[in-house]
Design brief:
Chain lengths: ~110, ~110
C-alpha cells in the first residue's frame, strides 16, 4: 500500500478563522495530520493521558512550540518537536505555518 | 519527554558523496531519520519483510519517489509518501533534497 499527499498545493491554504486540519493518514501504525495555522493563530496547549509519542514537523513558516507554564521554544521550517502524548504541547504561528503531526501509536 | 531538532541548520548540509543520514529520534513508538540527498543522488529502492508503515516527507528540494519496476512519482516540498515497510520504496533527488522518514513501529 502506497499513497502520496501534496501538502503544498494551492487548495491546502490557510484558514482565516480557526486552523485548518487535514487528516493525511490513519492506520494501525500511526496517524498523520496536517494543520495550517494563519499568522497569530494558536494550537492550544493540551495533552492526552495515553501512551505513545508524537512529532510535530514545521514544513513552512515560523512561530513557537508551546508547553505548560508559558514555556515556549522557537519553531521554524525544519524544526521537529518530539513529545510524549501525555506531555502538554501546543503551537503558536507568528507567520502562516504549515505543520505535520505524526502520532504513534495512533490515538 | 520533549526535545527539538533543527534540521534546517547550516551544519546539517548535503554530502557530496553518498547521502547524509541523521538519526533524529528512536523510541519504542517510532524511529525518525533525516536524509539529505545532493542533486543526482539516489536512495535505492528497497523493502523490509516487516509489518508496519513509514512516511517520507519532503522538507526541501525535489525529485521522485521510486518504486519497483521503474515506477516513479513526483516528489517536491510538502509531498508525503505513505508506504508499507514491505513495499519497495526509494527516492531520487533532482535537486538537493532534505527528507524526513518516520517508521512505525520502529525497525
Amino acid at each position: 500500500m502506497q499513497k502520496i499527499h501534496e501538502l503544498d498545493r494551492h487548495e491546502n491554504d490557510f484558514g482565516l478563522q480557526g486552523f485548518r486540519k487535514v487528516l493525511v493518514h490513519d492506520s494501525a501504525d500511526f496517524k498523520i495530520l496536517n494543520f495550517n495555522l494563519a499568522a497569530g493563530q494558536i494550537f492550544p496547549v493540551h495533552s492526552h493521558d495515553e501512551d505513545g509519542q508524537l512529532s510535530i514537523v514545521v514544513l513552512k513558516g515560523s512561530g513557537a512550540f508551546l508547553g505548560d507554564g508559558g514555556r515556549e521554544l522557537p519553531a521554524g521550517t525544519g524544526s521537529v518537536l518530539i513529545s510524549d502524548i501525555r506531555d502538554p504541547h501546543g503551537v503558536r504561528a507568528d507567520e502562516d505555518m504549515r505543520i505535520l503531526v505524526t502520532i504513534a501509536p495512533p490515538i
